[in-house]
Design brief:
The structure is a single chain. By secondary structure, the chain is α/β, with parallel strands linked by helices. Helices cover 39% and strands 14% of the residues. It has two domains: 2-46; 88-245, Nucleotidyltransferase, domain 5 (2-Layer Sandwich). It is built from nine helices and six strands, in the order H-H-H-E-E-E-E-H-E-H-H-E-H-H-H. Strands 1, 2, 3, 4, 5 and 6 form a six-stranded mixed beta sheet that branches. Strand 2 and strand 3 (104-112) form a beta hairpin. It starts with a helix and ends with a helix.
Length: 246
């Protein structure tokens, strides 16, 4: 009964956590450090507890139409793993529309594939070139000296094909990489992040305008980086994983 109560409490605190992440949280507790994931799965099934919904399909923002520009080759070829911080980065732009006002908000994060951390991001009501370049400028300011190449992977959106985007990367020793046209899986980690964010934010109709939505997104990204555990990071949050590895 004590275990059931603990599971129920964790599921209430983290409604989007499924069996694997509830199990990972339990194992951090000395009382349940040796618990089997199948037992957790069975008890959650008995209590009718499951992670809340990752099944809703959403329209994807299409940034391909726009000014012509130069593309570059796909340097990742879906090889997203790396054991070096800030070696392989990924970025994209996604759109949010507030139903109550019809306003739109755009988010562009930069994701470090080493530990799935959002190292920088920008929010804007317009998907302009200046908006797209802002996170890159912030990234450059915090890049430490390193003995290896940094790559930044994106789709073929017009912002990433623009000469200004390519110029700022080239001047700061960052090599661009691009997905093939209309191939979302070539940037799967970024798509996965957007899916988590939009699912766990909930219905956009709950927000009364851009300021509320912007605050919610900022709070969720902070939670994602500092608290939201990931199985592929050995049950740690992105920042926990980086700090323990350093």
């Amino acid at each position: 009964q004590k275990l059931k109560d603990t599971i129920r409490s964790l599921a209430a605190k983290y409604p989007y956590y499924g069996v694997r992440r509830i199990w990972a949280l339990l194992r951090k507790n000395s009382d349940y450090s040796r618990i089997n994931h199948k037992k957790v799965q069975r008890l959650m099934h008995e209590m009718n507890i499951q992670g809340a919904g990752y099944c809703k399909k959403r329209a994807k923002y299409n940034s391909y139409p726009g000014p012509d520009g130069q593309t570059t080759r796909n340097r990742f070829h879906r090889r997203f793993q790396t054991d070096r911080p800030l070696q392989k980065l990924s970025s994209d732009i996604t759109e949010f529309k507030v139903p109550t006002t019809g306003e739109k908000l755009y988010l562009e994060p930069i994701l470090d594939l080493y530990n799935k951390e959002i190292v920088t991001y920008a929010l804007s009501t317009k998907p302009s070139l200046a908006f797209a370049i802002e996170p890159v400028k912030e990234l450059i300011e915090q890049l430490p000296k390193r003995g290896y190449q940094t790559y930044l992977h994106t789709d073929q959106g017009w912002q990433y094909r623009h000469h200004s985007w390519r110029k700022i990367l080239r001047q700061n020793g960052i090599k661009p990489s691009m997905s093939r046209k209309a191939t979302a899986l070539d940037n799967a980690p970024m798509e996965s992040f957007f899916n988590k964010l939009k699912t766990e934010l909930g219905e956009l109709s709950q927000f009364n305008g851009i300021p509320e939505l912007k605050t919610a997104i900022e709070n969720w990204i902070h939670y994602y980086n500092t608290e939201r555990i990931q199985i592929k990071l050995k049950g740690q949050s992105p920042i926990e994983y980086r700090q323990l590895a350093s």
